[in-house]
Automatic annotation (TrEMBL):
The keyword Oxidoreductase applies. One of its GO terms (molecular function) is oxidoreductase activity. It comes from the Bacteria. SUPFAM superfamilies: Glyceraldehyde-3-phosphate dehydrogenase-like, C-terminal domain, NAD(P)-binding Rossmann-fold domains. Residues 6-132 form the Gfo/Idh/MocA-like oxidoreductase N-terminal domain. It comes from Actinoplanes xinjiangensis. Residues 141-284 form the GFO/IDH/MocA-like oxidoreductase domain. The lineage of its organism: Bacteria, Bacillati, Actinomycetota, Actinomycetes, Micromonosporales. This is Putative dehydrogenase. Coiled coil: none annotated. The keyword Magnesium does not apply. Keywords: Oxidoreductase.
Amino acid sequence: MTRPLGVAVVGFGWMGHAHTRAYLRARHHYPDLPITPQLVAVADPEPGRAEAAAAQYGFAAATTDWRELLTDPRVEAVSVTAPNFLHREIGAAVAASGRHLWIEKPVGLTGDDARAVAAAATTAGVRSTVGFNYRAAPAVAEARALIAGGAVGRVTNARFRFFSDYAAHPDGALSWRFTRSHGGSGVLGDLASHAVDLARHLLGDIEALVADTTTVIPARPTVTGAASHFSRADGPPGPVENPDHVHALLRFAGGARGVLEASRVAVGEQNTYGFEVHGTTGALAWDFRRMGELSVSTGEDYQSQSYRTVFAAPGHGDFGAFQPGAGIAMSYDDTKVIEAVGFLRSIADGTPYGPALDDAVAAATVVDAMLDSARTGAWVSV
Ligand SMILES: NC(=O)c1ccc[n+]([C@@H]2O[C@H](COP(=O)([O-])OP(=O)(O)OC[C@H]3O[C@@H](n4cnc5c(N)ncnc54)[C@H](O)[C@@H]3O)[C@@H](O)[C@H]2O)c1
């Protein structure tokens, strides 16, 4: 048995499309899902964008004002895929209206913003899911299971690296991502938050860190209207107010040490997102661009124990919902389908599945600690 659930999407850029496609595909991959999402409404202030979304995907209504969605009794759950500075206001209002919330990371500009949204969801008793989609990759699920099962021994050290070149061009537009008031902490909220979530997901809580940040391109051409990650512009230059790079040393509560690096201006790197985890008897490595491959070194040899490639397969995370055999490629959008399904299941039975607002609060708290450390030059307890 499945029941319909009215959903709305606020903000129709890249992530608005990704969430909508995920809702539409959820039951294709999970036919037993107890909830079938219905596209009720979409909001975006950019002229024509919400109407285009409605025409493309079949939303029943389109508006430029997200507040209208919260007066529509057909809307039971909302995706918040608008820029970071709107997460707190919209996220808290969605929750306070009694609607379930699937919200993109980093959930606001600061840890305080994430905590405010989490408190609103707790008070209202609604379910939440947060867009930390990399943990949905089946190879990452398998890595987590191997680590938990002791396959690499005691974890001693790890590296989490999120490098992108999306802002490497000096003509890259001064979009909302580059101002403190609209983008918050720059690459920290944008990419390092994903890395922090993966680190916590695989190795547990981070208890202390020291971090350094830099802004490599201090000014960018201004732009009028909506601009994405990848837009170029030729307006007069305006200041970049948040970091392009962060490097951090981490101490995990479980004793392991880590290195975390994120950059949005790394020439030569296109979505080089991944990790290496080392233990006393083995090691694991994963690169998002080869999402279905996990490099695994396990055994009893210690030395000369090379990595072998394990292809994601049925039994690894949610792989079996997408493909029947090992090595058949999955995609970025599939991770969003897995995330959507976790959200819908959590609404159906009240149990959280996948990343939720407490994870967003934890990641934002680590990001705040990185900013503190970068300012003072000191180790910071998280
Ligand atoms: N999980 C991931 O992998 C991932 C990837 C990219 C972005 N994100 C997150 O998703 C969010 C959106 O990023 P994006 O890349 O889709 O951005 P984008 O700039 O492509 O799209 C943002 C959209 O929000 C709209 N918008 C602006 N003000 C609005 C308002 N008041 N009400 C409704 N809509 C409004 C814009 O017009 C635009 O269409 C960000 O928080 C970002 O951090 C997550």
